[in-house]
Amino acid sequence: MNMEFVRKLTIPAEVKEMYPLTGEMARCFEQRDIQLKKILSGRDNRLLLIIGPCSADNPDSVMDYMERLRKVQEEVEEKIFIVPRCYTNKPRTTGKGYKGMLHQPDPGHKPDMFKGLIAIREMHMRVVRETGFTCADEMLYTENYKYLDDILGYVAVGARSVENQQHRLTSSGIEVPVGMKNPTSGDLSVMMNAITAAQDKHTFIYRGWEVHSQGNPYAHAILRGYVNKQGHSHPNYHYEDILLVSQLYGENPGLSNPAVIIDCNHSNSGKQPLEQVRIAKEIVVNRQLNARVGKLVKGLMIESYIEDGAQSVGGGCYGKSITDACLGWDKSSRLIYELAEML
Question: Alpha-carbon distance 36 to 38, whole Å?
Fold first, then answer.
């Protein structure tokens, strides 16, 4: 094989023993899991808002953002339930560029996967300990979920991973909600097949073991727009798009807890992060116009950081994304308050 085997990494149980949760952190995880599942099942009518940096690139600026978000959550908690994005692995279309804290705990240094595994657990633990939030993260590598399964509140399967069998089957063994994005092609049947697979029971290989999964009844859809064969972005957050997903759920009556989250960035915004404000407000209005839309759309996903836009690695601007461009804090906080007033 044309690969160099550097070292065998520490198994999840050993990392958890090195960095264990306190009783208070475990209770926080359990309480928030109950609340999130109530929203996705329709037993809680609050809007779910998954918001935060495109990538968790700097622990200090990420925690600064989380502390600001905590204060806003306290003011809107009767109408909005916030799950912060703390994305520690980042898919790269060409394989080039910063791949997240898991790969590079310090973006300015070379990759170190062992330090990365420690860093991502410490990052998620720090958010829970200091703010009481449990976070969302993307499951880029299915093998790594076990390092965070006792603390991660929400799992997203990305547009490039949603067709992968291992992601689908692993999702069927995850206890917290898992969002399945539509693929970059926009084929909604791929997303619905992924949800079906994730909600079913399976037997498969995971981390060298034969495992049996029980199915995840909280696997659901995330609409993130798509790209056509010419490479042009097309949105799928509009009223008609949501009705189509409602129809697809209706054609699959065996699926539990029908739910859609709208990703306001990526191809829905054409990667224009400031457009997320307009898109989020339109979706809330559409929820109020039609009972089917209102019942199905449970929340929004927004890429947001301290500063607007993005910069290159080493750019030097505190709180500015080094991956996809984000909506800055002032605009983000204003949007959250405005959404709460609309609900």
Answer: 5
Q: For the chain, which residues make up each domain, given as ranges?
A: 12-322
| Structure confidence at residue 100 as a pLDDT band (50, 70, 90) | confident
Which pLDDT score is estimated for 27? 97
Number of Cβ atoms within 10 Å of the Cβ of 38: 14
Give residue 45's pLDDT: 97
- CA separation (Å) from 213 to 33, 168, 173, 217, 252? 19, 11, 5, 12, 21
Q: Does domain 12-322 have CATH number 3.20.20.70?
A: yes
Query: φ, ψ for residue 224 (rounded to 5)?
Result: -130, 15
Which residues partner with 154 through β-bridges?
A: 136
**Which residue matches tokens 């790594």?**
144
The predicted model gives 327-338 an average pLDDT of 98
pTM given for the model: 0.97
Comparing CA positions, the residue from 51, 55, 50, 85 lying closest to residue 324 is: 55
Could you tell me the two tokens for 199?
Answer: 């909600």
Token digits of residue 131: 């703010």
Q: How many residues does the chain have?
A: 343
Output DSSP code: residue 43.
S
What gap in Å lies between CA 170 and CA 160, rounded to an integer?
Answer: 16
* Angle, in degrees to the nearest 10, between helices 239-250 and 188-199: 40
